[in-house]
Amino acid sequence: MLYAQVHLTLPAWVHDAVDTARDYPSDADKVGLAIALSRQNIEAQSGGPFGAAVFGPDHRVIAVGVNRVLAHACSVAHAEMMACMLAQGRTQRPRLNRDAGGATVGPITLASSSQPCCQCYGATVWAGIDRLLIGARAEDVMALTEFDEGPLPADWVGELNARGIEVVRDIQRDAACAVLRAYGELGGQRY
């Protein structure tokens, strides 16, 4: 029998870890939440060391995500993908920065504990993200864990900028790397 549906979930602890009424005014606040989610994901043994959050123009959380690849045996269950899919479901907008009539809604910000891999890079374009905030770099991920982040265009930041997506890197990079390092020291267990 063929499967006719996909069912992806975040771990139950997420409900207690995120305050959707809270304002996250600074870029550091936004990335700080993504890093906290990545840390809790490895501490709870519910997934890999990656967290992400989508924020609306009011600086409040629309949705969050953590890595759930092994938990769901699904290669697209990356933190950024989970956050974007859940934000799209919550808003009922396939492009988060456009309403049903095509009017601008935003800016929409995606904060990630680490630089998006090649898969999540593409999703950033198509999900309607206006700002991408990043903690650790891809080279940090690959140096501190066993993950392969895949190929990106040589000037991937320039490519996103050309599409109207502002990229801000190295926000709380040391804190993001500490989570990656802790995960690597656990033997690179992939939950």
In brief:
This protein is an alpha/beta fold. The chain has helices spanning 14-17, 27-43, 69-72, 79-91, 118-126, 138-144, 156-162, 173-185; strands at residues 51-55, 61-66, 109-114, 131-136, 166-168.
Describe the structure.
This protein has 191 residues and is α/β, with parallel strands linked by helices. The protein has helices at 14-17, 27-43, 69-72, 79-91, 118-126, 138-144, 156-162, 173-185, and strands at 51-55, 61-66, 109-114, 131-136, 166-168. The chain contains 8 helices and 5 strands; from the N terminus they run ααββααβαβααβα. It has a 5-stranded mixed beta sheet with strand order 2-1-3-4-5, with helices on both faces.
How does the SSE layout of this entry go?
Blueprint (H helix, E strand, L loop, with lengths): L13 H4 L9 H17 L7 E5 L5 E6 L2 H4 L6 H13 L17 E6 L3 H9 L4 E6 L1 H7 L11 H7 L3 E3 L4 H13 L6
Parallel strand pairs: 3-4, 4-5
Antiparallel strand pairs: 1-2, 1-3
